[in-house]
Amino acid sequence: MATIKVPAQFSAAEDAERLQKAFQGWGTDEASIISILAHRNAVQRKLIQEIYKETYGEDLLKALDKELSSDFERVVLLWTLTPSERDAYLANEAIKLLTANNWVLLEIACTRSSLDLFAVKQAYHARYKKSLEEDVAYHTSGDIRKLLVPLVCSFRYEGDEVNMTLAKKEAKIMREAISDKKHNDEELIRILSTRSKAQLNATLNHYNNEFGNPINKDLKTDPNNEYLKLLRAAIKCLTSPEKYFEKVLRLAIKGMGTDEWALTRVITTRAEVDMERIKEEYHRRNSVTLEKAITGDTSGDYEKMLLALIGHGDA
Amino acid sequence: MATIKVPAQFSAAEDAERLQKAFQGWGTDEASIISILAHRNAVQRKLIQEIYKETYGEDLLKALDKELSSDFERVVLLWTLTPSERDAYLANEAIKLLTANNWVLLEIACTRSSLDLFAVKQAYHARYKKSLEEDVAYHTSGDIRKLLVPLVCSFRYEGDEVNMTLAKKEAKIMREAISDKKHNDEELIRILSTRSKAQLNATLNHYNNEFGNPINKDLKTDPNNEYLKLLRAAIKCLTSPEKYFEKVLRLAIKGMGTDEWALTRVITTRAEVDMERIKEEYHRRNSVTLEKAITGDTSGDYEKMLLALIGHGDA
After folding, report:
1. What is the CATH number of the domain that holds B147?
2. C-alpha distances in angstroms, B307 versus B4, B34, B35, B289, B296?
3. What are the binding positions for Ca(2+) 2 in this chain (chains A, B) (predicted)?
4. Contact between chains at A149 and B150 (C-beta distance less than 8 A)
5. Mutation site for A-interface testing, chosen from B148, B153, B156 by largest number of A Cβ within 10 Å
6. Is A133 in CB contact (< 8 Å) with chain B?
7. Residues A233 and A245 in one domain
8. Across the 315 residues of chain B, what is the mean pLDDT of every consecutive 10-residue run?
9. Is residue A220 classed as helix, strand or coil in its secondary structure?
10. Considering the entire predicted model, what is its pTM?
11. Domain of A297?
């Protein structure tokens, strides 16, 4: 469930006008920007962008880019994009930053719906004149490539049908690969990268019941192995995305300093999807609400924007 | 260019009525079926199917299935399907028949446009409650899987932009893999399965100019190796589909007996796409027109339907 709050009345023309006013004169009216953009859904934001362009002859994103800065700029820009444009942007950024950011690619490949992931691929074509899988394959190698490319390429079936005979068979295949320490086994990767989420869930439940451990426990033989970390993250994204995102938020917030890059990414990409569930999970796991954690770790307009996106205050 | 001829006037309701009449009484009026269906494009055939279902409460494909038989039945049924449903059907049939039919999967993966291939994947979900790549990955193994799965999964960029620096670099990578006899090299497969057709063409032209042979010549070290055959076919499908299809037709027609399975497949899948080019290529390569070759090798309603689809006679 989404957390953003959208008012009953909406006029793209009025919003565009208020935004344009917010940019005028000395300084910028950040409060107005938050009160408008943080409370509009993807379709509405797209309409505002179109009307803004028609009326003022300037791209709204470019105008925001000129007026804002730092973490607040990033959260507003990412949020304003449509989900598929935003994911295409994040994926391209991750590819350019190379190895450190395979997580972002994995997250996009494994937590979006099949059609949403396809929309990301179309947006990537349109913006970067290349295909997403082409860039991912080009910039990775070895086991990481073997895992990441099929995940990014996938177009999974999304029905609820489960074949239990197959689930048992494939749980056994996975178990054997893991017992033999063949963590890059091509059958293991085939199962993870092609089966529907419902089928995979049945397979992994059977794995747990039959072999005594959740699969991710059996995959924790070497906590520092980058490939194994990605493999576990893929399984978590595919079966319990809210737990995966809770952990990303937890690590982004905890300790000295904040990882604003991850915090902004998770909140802008999930606010219209399953942020309500992620907040519950966060509260359960950390005994503090996500609101409180964000308030403690961020400040100013950036803080206000994040809080608005996770449902704080009124539309 | 397509070969089918469509009349200026079209009424789905009239067509549905004429088809229903053709099925009635003792025997079937095959001439009417050909005169209608062979001269309607994909959108029109879909409309006729919808109206037929509404009016007579029966699926048109089921009715055709009851009335017709053998090669004529197959060509009419395959043709009547929409292109994406037809490809999904052919792919599923190929998967069930296993190893002998990797060609069909390869052909679908490499000769359809990116959006058409995506439509096949959607049709596959809808009809078989599974994903195409899931079935292909499950039913293949070894080098064949390594090649076929990424080809089937691809969603290539389709712009004309070419990066010549990259083309030179990747031609060299391919050359080195082939010189070392590493025909299943993952870089080689990455390039073939992810680059746009325009980019790939530039790379392979550079390969030819720089290293003295077309790549397919260098890949002909062992004429009976199944993997190498598929690799060469993939390259042909991606760069000169009309030559690939000409060869499939040539082999289907030549010698004793005819491979109706392949003949029907190529004609039904290309009649609305590039059959005109394939006919030219066939004539050039065999010094006989495709019409003549088909007339010599087939007969009856099957022959009439094939000839109508490749543009013989009037709409």
Report:
1. 1.10.220.10
2. 10, 10, 11, 12, 12
3. 253, 257, 297
4. yes
5. B153
6. yes
7. no
8. 91 96 88 96 96 96 94 97 97 81 94 98 97 95 96 97 98 97 96 98 97 95 92 97 97 86 96 96 96 95 97 80
9. coil
10. 0.92
11. 241-309
